[in-house]
């Protein structure tokens, strides 16, 4: 990339003089939109994630991680009608109430652009189950092909249902009878809440749950190109009897923690032992990429970044 930068630098002074530094910066630097996971505590009726609690802090840490990781261009969902009176351009969402386990419906929710809504809460689960989560569904009154109809069904994305995933959001519920380690780094022999939250949000985002995940499952293996490149071949999967689907990486599947060279079991394999800390790995990220999410990462040698820095330095030099 260096020759490209050198050639650009020869003409950069002319561009700055004729177009201005601000225009140049606007043309070169086009930051993608980060995904916002909007936490909704309405159905946290037991106040498990109370304001200022370690539980809420870990939840916000987990959603912030994915907000920094993911980029996309999701259309807003802006209802103008009223679902209860069958008015067009209205809708009703449905999801599992995180505090009761019953189906919850809410009418005419507005969802901002590049945003998904996560309804959270806690309740007791039987056995060894730590938590559950998933994306939500919807019913709609809309003119077929209208902007509202497209926003509800695809959030403006192409290939939803086969190669892409663009939900309005979903739910997350944790077991409030589990003895949790609520530290950020893991500090004992209890179940690590932050690790569990990362895992469950991965399901909300479509790993093991989205149609675009299912479309890349063959003979008990995941065949997404990014995951294959990261793992070194088709990735073995775990079959869940409760969901009757391949919804996790196989037990013991390893990868490196995202952004590091440290080997770890993948976050989205089916279990975690007491005292373990499991962060999102490169394989988990590859899976998200394969099902349609854009991953926020800047190659170290990206010529656009180098050119933008050169432009900024030249602007500063000319202002002295």
- The unreliable regions are 1-31, 298-320
Distance between the termini: 29 Å
β-strand amount: 15-25%
Side-by-side strand order of the widest sheet:
1-5-8-6
Order of helices and strands: HHEHEEEEEEHEEEHHEEHEEEEHEH
Total strands: the figure is 17
Q: Give me the Rg, rounded.
A: 22 Å
Give the overall shape, derived from the CA principal axes.
globular
State the major sheet. Answer: 4 strands, mixed
What helical percentage do the residues reach? 25-40%
Which structural category do the helix and sheet elements fall into?
Answer: alpha+beta
Average pLDDT works out at: 86
Give the helix tally: 9
Briefly characterize the structure.
By secondary structure, the chain is of the alpha+beta class. It has helices at residues 2-19, 21-28, 54-69, 147-154, 193-204, 211-214, 225-231, 282-290, 303-319, and strands at 36-40, 70-71, 90-96, 103-107, 115-123, 131-135, 137-141, 169-175, 180-181, 191-192, 217-218, 221-222, 235-240, 245-249, 254-256, 263-265, 294-295.
Task: Walk me through this protein's architecture.
- The chain is α+β, with helices and mostly antiparallel strands.
- Helix content is 31%, strand content 22%.
- The protein has nine helices and 17 strands.
- It has helices at residues 2-19, 21-28, 54-69, 147-154, 193-204, 211-214, 225-231, 282-290, 303-319; strands at 36-40, 70-71, 90-96, 103-107, 115-123, 131-135, 137-141, 169-175, 180-181, 191-192, 217-218, 221-222, 235-240, 245-249, 254-256, 263-265, 294-295.
- The strands form six sheets. A four-stranded mixed sheet has the order 1-5-8-6, covered by helices on one side.
- A hairpin with a 4-residue loop joins strand 13 and strand 14.
- The longest helix has 18 residues, at 2-19.
